[in-house]
């Protein structure tokens, strides 16, 4: 055993030195080519990079790699641990893939800006399980709504601000999407083509931006959820409010609530006659469902059902009386035949050529 260890010692020494050198090289204070470095901030903007530069200073706090063409980030993107990196800006990169382990070496990341990309998949293990992320900016960054699947599964327990504005969420239900984010304080869903807001509970939420969507009304269950915590502030401007009976609850709630910061500026879009009328000035008596609206549609459905029922009963009666009807039809047919036969007989007598000859002969 002993003689074996003796020659190993100098070898191990070289190894340690090499590792030390490597560590020094990796923790360099150098600045990547063409980037701007100042104190603990590095900016590599509009450089047409297609990967994150590797020679980043070890003490870096903020990193801006915007306006490049980094189509994916994965676990090779940050090969060394950057303990102090808290702010990472990756907007405008045409990014499509955020893969597992991408941010594994950034244990203290607090603000992540991925806006203005076209992300197709965001792996739920991209961030470390015990991440400290507080702000996530995904404004105008969805390729399509499939990115929403990421949220319920990702560990975003400390996330306070989420910006999802300017994405197309039209065909996606949001219930359950945010339930795991118990610390969420600010949520922007501005300009996301939403036409309904239902069934979510975000106990800590204080600021909800729903401007510029397709909301026509808000169901009373949603209003009740909004009212649970009166420190919640909501923005609703720029939605096509439909001022008929369906908006009843919303108007009553708006008049009694201080939670909607832009309530003074909300106006009706539908019906034509009420366009631009402020919601707060609408009277309950004006909120009737006119002939073109829902109530009539339901009455049409009802009418259709009644007619169908009558039709079915009629057919049933016919079926049950089929023997009587058959008899009746036979009777009619027989009557007709009798009548026709009588007629036929008379006609035949008149048109019999022999009789005609007879009469001629008798004339002769
Ligand atoms: C990881 O991403 C870089 C670009 O950021 C890319 O060049 C590399 O091929 C990717 N690696 C894998 C295994 O996908
Ligand atoms: C991170 O920041 C702390 C405090 O500012 C500092 O003591 C430490 O050396 C920094 N870490 C690195 C790797 O530079
Ligand atoms: C997200 O990024 C967009 C532009 O990329 C910016 O306008 C917006 O203010 C950012 N949101 C937050 C919450 O920082
Ligand atoms: C999103 O786009 C991808 C690729 O185009 C497609 O496979 C996926 O089904 C789409 N998802 C949704 C929810 O539309
Ligand atoms: C709301 O969501 C919860 C769970 O996400 C579900 O159990 C419940 O049925 C939903 N309620 C409505 C009215 O959609
Ligand atoms: C309402 O929200 C505020 C701020 O998020 C929070 O401090 C407070 O505990 C909440 N109150 C209730 C009753 O949930
Ligand atoms: C109006 O709001 C108060 C609390 O601000 C509430 O107690 C009351 O029930 C509300 N009235 C109506 C008619 O909703
Ligand atoms: C709301 O309307 C008031 C005047 O009624 C105007 O001064 C204000 O700028 C408007 N706010 C918005 C956000 O449009």
Automatic annotation (TrEMBL):
The lineage of its organism: Eukaryota, Metazoa, Chordata, Craniata, Vertebrata. GO terms for biological process: negative regulation of canonical Wnt signaling pathway. It comes from the Eukaryota. The keyword 4Fe-4S does not apply. The keyword Coiled coil does not apply. PROSITE patterns: LRR, PROKAR_LIPOPROTEIN. SMART domains: LRR_TYP, LRRCT. It comes from Cyprinodon variegatus (Sheepshead minnow). GO terms for cellular component: plasma membrane. This is Trophoblast glycoprotein. Residues 1-30 form the signal peptide. Keywords: Leucine-rich repeat, Membrane, Repeat, Signal, Transmembrane, Transmembrane helix. The chain crosses the membrane at residues 300-320. Gene3D superfamilies: Ribonuclease Inhibitor. Residues 239-290 form the LRRCT domain.
